[in-house]
Amino acid sequence: MSSRVRQPKDLPQIKPMNPQLSTFWSLSTDQVLQQMHSTTAGLSRQDAKQRLSEFGANSLKQKHKSSAWILLLNQFKSPIILILIFAAVLSIFLKDAADAIIILTIVFISGLLGFWQEQGASNAVEKLLALVQVKATVLRDGQSQEIPNEEVVRGDIVLLSAGKNIPGDCLVLESKDLSVNEAALTGETYPVDKLSGVLPAETGLSQRTNSLYLGTNVISGTAKAVVVHTGKETEFGKVSERLKLRPSETEFERGLSKFGYFLMEVTLILVVLIFVANVYLHRPVLESFLFSLALAVGLTPQLLPAIVSVNLARGAKKMAKKQVIVKRLPAIENFGSMNVFCTDKTGTLTEGEVKIHSAVDVEGKESVGGASLRDAARTPQANRVLLYAYLNAASESGYVNPIDTAIREYKTFDISAYQKLDEVPYDFNRKRLSILFKKESTHLIITKGALKNILDVCSTVETGEGKAIAIADQRQKLHQQAEDLGSKGFRALGVAYRDFNQDSFSKDDETNMTFLGYLALFDPPKAGIADTLKELQLLGITPKMITGDSKAVAMSIIQQVGLPQAKALTGSELEKLSDEALMHRVQDTNVFAEVEPNQKERIIIALKKAGNVVGYLGDGINDASALHAADVGISVESAVDVAKEAADIVLMAKDLNVLIEGVKEGRVTFANTLKYVFMATSANFGNMFSMAGISLFLPFLPLLPSQILLTNLLTDFPELTIATDRVDKELVNKPRRMDIKFIRNFMIVFGLLSSIFDYLTFGALLLLLHAQPEQFRTGWFLESVISASLVVLVVRTRQSILNSKPGKYLLTATLATIGVTIIIPWTPLATLLGFQPLPLNFVLVLGAIVLFYVTAAENVKRVFYSYVKF
Fold first, then answer.
1. Active-site residue, from 96, 156, 177, 344
2. Within 10 A of 35 (CB to CB), how many other CB atoms are there?
């Protein structure tokens, strides 16, 4: 079926790529709208739907949901499985059709189990990701509506505001104080001002001030723009196509890859040796080949991808019930391994509701009630601080923030006499918001923002008597007053003004200002946050605060929430440290105060280099780089788009208790995933290794190829339920990481133990019971499957098998497997499979060996964990 959809006659015909649009910044807005067959009122819903169908989703990695058939076929793409299928089909024509059909049937059943598991996992994850989609505001049929970014199409009219991601390459139609962060695309650190206009076609990417690009985000201001390119046609899309960008592997993924390569090497060497030896012993070549391949299947944990997918998907579903949405499944492992958690202050450690305590003049006098515009000049200077702060907050049109809301709600003034002329919006480099007002014949710039950044642009300070004096001799006093406010838990914002004589201004005019006073803000600690932080520490996670607030405020909050012996590092101190020195300092520092946005990423990287698995919680425009840098980026559902997009995990509530529950579920998921690895490297590996060895000394094959595959299928069955198993508390109480060395030691010890009892079984069958080939194979099949199933219950826990109860599904599957295994030799299938019923003395001897093996495994486990730490 063609990927192109026939367009109805009443819909505009759009070419896949108009050459003129390759330099759309050189065209007028009317020309671009005409070329895109769009208007300033946007597309119709029908038109947008048809364009989405024609050109596909707006995604750099196009999502083609695999059909059930494709997913099923993927279960058989392993080279070993394909060779086995080919050999089995070949044997139908050359030798034993019945045996080959049995082999193919078992392989197909195994594939069906993997398909069933992965299909369920895929559907579950898709539903979870839909909960945290990043959305764009577009005009459809003249009405604004929110749609997922993936559904934005060429010709859409998008409405942008601070914190929004740019959903495609766009031409600005109109803007107001628009400032965009293009660092991800151009590498330019500072925000770029954007406005409508026409530029020469040869204008470089970083100079295209009328264009917006996918992968960037709005810092401040608002805009309306038309989408010209989407998905892989965008500038960002072209880069990603060239570089084939993909998320970096987590430590868990790297560990699994190393484990897979290790098993592959062992399997290849063993299979080649066994095949050559059997041919040398003059056994049938095809039978020897099938035997070797069946051993390879038995040695290969082919269900590992399905087990990992199911474990992670089930963990994600359980975490979702705890209000934690996992966007990238492998991040669950990092979530569970996290031992350092960095967070902001506002809304996480505190209530997140900024309130005004008072306005304070430079003499330390606080504001009094009853001020109005008429008598503001006769009230204390602190009331003028309130008035000017209110004018600034009530008139800003950029990034809406809780501080401005708090100012507007604290006290209202009649500001009808003031006319707003111009605005330089807040950004995270200047940390100031300035607005130009006109009152009668006078012009006034009012600026508020971070105290240090306000004082940097002031040349005078207004005293309590209304006199302006040079600020040079007052700086120490002003900083001390702010420190005094900070020690009481208040954050100090600065307010300044300047007389002006023009109707417009720019950030370059933020000079020679007069400092007026402070706004004292407070945000009380959350109730119960001290207990929550203690629980984090009990889980082996060290909390660290990263804030732009003053050191005094940060230390006050830390003392209130009960973190002992707080050690602080300020942004200015951090700036003087080399990367190596910072790597040593971050370990014992738990408060980073007065931090610039671009320093957050540096702190995270230093913590990672120091050997930590770092989590970072952020929800602001300036948190994206730190979220990307962290091992696990955590945001909240209410965060701005750019933060939510960068995060691996999204909390539906900004609450550390939610985070704690998520960490516990992450550790449960990690523990259950490792259980399968332990199982695959103990009894299963030992059994296959033993079978390979004994085959060199027997005049017959110890198991037929179909019997080996049946053994592998039955031993894998209980392990499919491992995602539902209970996890011991000690595996949840502290972070753990993928350790290939530990897994290798585990495989050697428990694989060797399994082999010892395998050879004990061989000796009993041959020397004690004098078993014939069919009896040997039946007895070995029974002992192999039953012991491997029971040892799952042993290796799943560090505790005694009597103290740590398995999950009901695992226990049920194990007992069912044992039951089916015991019954098979007494069913009509026995003849087809080459089995026969065993005498009672065979059953008693084999039962004693299995009991002895389980007891030995329990004791070896106790000794192993006393010497080997994990």
1. 344
2. 19
- The amino acid present at 270, given as its one-letter code, is L
Handedness of CA 384, 390, 391, 392 (dihedral sign): positive
**β-strand pairing of 591-593 with 419-424:** unpaired
Q: For residue range 339-398, what is the model confidence (pLDDT) as tens digits?
A: 999 988 777 788 777 888 889 888 888 875 433 333 343 346 778 899 999 999 999 876
Is the pLDDT higher at 394 or at 647? 394
Give the pair of three-digit tokens for residue 860: 């070896």
Helix axes 656-680, 304-321, angle to 10 degrees: 160
Q: How many CB atoms lie within 10 A of CB 822?
A: 13
Question: At 251, phi and psi to the nearest 5?
Answer: -60, -35
Nearby residues of 530 by Cβ (< 8 Å), 6 or more positions away: 561, 562
DSSP 690-729: HHHHHTTTSSS-SS-HHHHHHHHHHHHHHHTTGGG----G
Q: Do residues 227 and 169 lie in contact, with contact meaning Cβ atoms separated by under 8 Å? A: yes
Output the CA–CA distances (angstroms, integers) from residue 461 to 362, 467, 507, in the order listed: 8, 8, 20
Alpha helical stretches, state H, 130-188: 183-186
Long-range contacts, 285-288 (Cβ 8 Å, 24+) = 286/87, 286/90, 286/91, 286/94, 286/95, 287/95, 287/701, 287/705
Res. 468: pLDDT tops 80: yes
**855: CB partners within 8 A, 6+ apart:** none
**Tokens 């579903």 identify what position?**
317
Nearest to 486 by CA among 553, 423, 540, 387: 553
Is 361 marked active-site? no
Predicted confidence at residue 374, as pLDDT, reads 37
Give the Cα separation of 423 and 436 in Å (integer): 6
Q: How confident is the model at residue 252 (pLDDT cuts 50, 70, 90)?
A: low
Per the structure block, which two tokens stand in for 751? 């694989």
Cα separation, 164 vs 174, in Å, equals: 16
Between CA 21 and CA 228 the distance in angstroms is 7
If 0-12 CB within 10 Å is exposed, 13-18 middle and 19+ buried, where does residue 77 land?
exposed
Residue 227 tokens, joined:
């989408």
| Whether the predicted pLDDT of 326 surpasses 70 | yes
State the virtual CA torsion across 104, 108, 111, 117 in degrees, nearest 10: -160
Q: Are strands 355-361 and 649-651 parallel, antiparallel or unpaired?
A: unpaired
For residue range 546-604, what is the model confidence (pLDDT) as tens digits? 987 778 888 888 888 876 667 889 888 998 999 899 999 999 898 998 887 778 989 99
Say which residues have a Cβ less than 8 Å from residue 75's Cβ, sequence separation at least 6. 110, 111, 112, 114, 115, 118, 306
d(CA 587, CA 606): 9
CA 825 to chain CA centroid, nearest Å: 49
Tell me the chain's radius of gyration from C-alpha atoms.
34
Mean pLDDT of the chain: 81
CA gap 687, 785 in Å, rounded:
9
CA distance 196 to 705: 72
pLDDT recorded at residue 5: 36
Strands 143-148 and 135-140: antiparallel
Residue 843 confidence (pLDDT): 94
**252: amino acid identity, one letter:** F
What percent of the chain is modeled with pLDDT above 70?
80
pLDDT confidence bin for 712, thresholds 50/70/90: confident
